[in-house]
Write a structure and sequence with these properties.
Double Stranded RNA Binding Domain; 48% helix; 11% strand; mainly alpha; globular
């Protein structure tokens, strides 16, 4: 069997719903079609989830790992289930099923046609929770003769980043950030990087294991200051620094150095925004500020912006996804 987290997903051929493999014969939660003849050489979501969770728990003390490369729908679901079980063990609710239902009911699903995901998530999470309640993960893996070893982990395609938890202070992050900017793995304009000033304004570890970071970046050619913050359980200084480096590359569109092109880009983005607003007006009511950032609409927005710039002005604009090809954008 292929022991790979990112293999157990597929699309329904009738309604194109994105799904994970819950059984080798399953009903599509969106259109209700019975999907048969699914590949039996692929590991089911439940087995993948339990194997990886038990591995991470034994290695790191938590179900969610310190850093994972998220590059697929299945991996997003894995991340969510890791968070759920960490939260479950931390809060110890009296009714675990009720806790699960409330946890998934709180998810924000913007697109009406993707509401089926709530049911799909509940089915997937409940299958894992039932094992947790009835026999526990270790006994389940023993009964099915499933075990994830370090060698399998590296050989079979798990995209986990095994990292040293070396992020203790703000200075650790600053040193790592200076190193990643010098290394410049995306080969971004080095002169441009060198002119930037980066300030870590807040660094706050929490009792839950998450680290909150707030930072400012000065001296962009087109704006005085860019400010951002994020909280995660990444405890490796280099990985945390890479998140900030990616923000710099995403925000620092080189063509903005030219004031004329900067203005054309601004106009193209406004036109793209109007196209999406016309296509999906209900989203603008729910998310009036940045609607295209949710549930893959950012890619639609970038596509239109790129098309407008090329067709109207002959400008080749690189989207954030093109500039950071291995980063997962919603």
């Amino acid at each position: 069997m292929a022991i790979q987290e990112y293999q157990c997903e597929f699309f329904c051929k009738q309604c194109h719903a994105q799904l994970v493999l819950l059984d080798y014969k399953m009903k599509c939660p969106k259109c209700g079609r019975l999907i048969e003849n699914l590949p039996e050489d692929e590991t089911l979501f439940i087995d993948n989830a339990i194997m990886s969770m038990q591995y991470y728990k034994n290695k790191n003390g938590s179900y969610r790992p310190s850093g994972t490369f998220v590059d697929s729908f299945a991996m997003i679901m894995f991340f969510d289930i890791y968070d759920f079980f960490d939260s479950l063990e931390q809060k110890q609710p009296a009714d675990r099923i009720d806790f699960l239902n409330k946890y998934i009911d709180d998810f924000t699903i913007v697109l009406e046609e993707e509401e089926y995901l709530r049911q799909h998530y509940k089915h997937a999470f409940l299958s894992v929770l039932n094992v947790y309640n009835d026999q526990g993960f270790e006994k389940y893996l023993e009964s099915k003769q499933l075990q994830l070893t370090d060698k399998q982990f590296q050989d079979q395609g798990y995209k986990q980043i095994i990292e040293e938890p070396n992020l203790k202070t703000k200075d650790d992050l600053i040193i790592a950030l200076n190193d990643i900017i010098k290394e410049n793995p995306l080969k971004f304009d080095q002169d441009y990087l060198d002119q930037l000033k980066i300030e870590i304004t807040e660094f706050r570890p929490s009792s839950s294991g998450f680290i909150y970071v707030k930072y400012k970046i000065y001296n962009f050619d087109y704006c005085e200051t860019f400010e951002n913050n994020f909280s995660s359980n990444i405890k490796n200084a280099k990985t945390k620094a890479e998140c900030i480096y990616h923000d710099i590359v995403e925000m620092s569109e080189p063509i903005k150095k030219d004031p004329q092109i900067r203005q054309l880009l601004k106009q193209a983005k406004k036109e793209a925004d109007k196209i999406i607003k016309k296509e999906r007006p209900f989203i603008y009511k729910l998310l009036p500020f940045i609607p295209y950032r949710r549930l893959r609409l950012c890619h639609r927005y970038w596509y239109e912006t790129k098309r407008i710039l090329k067709e109207k002005h002959g400008i080749d604009w690189k989207t954030p996804q093109e500039r950071i090809p291995y980063k997962k954008f919603d």
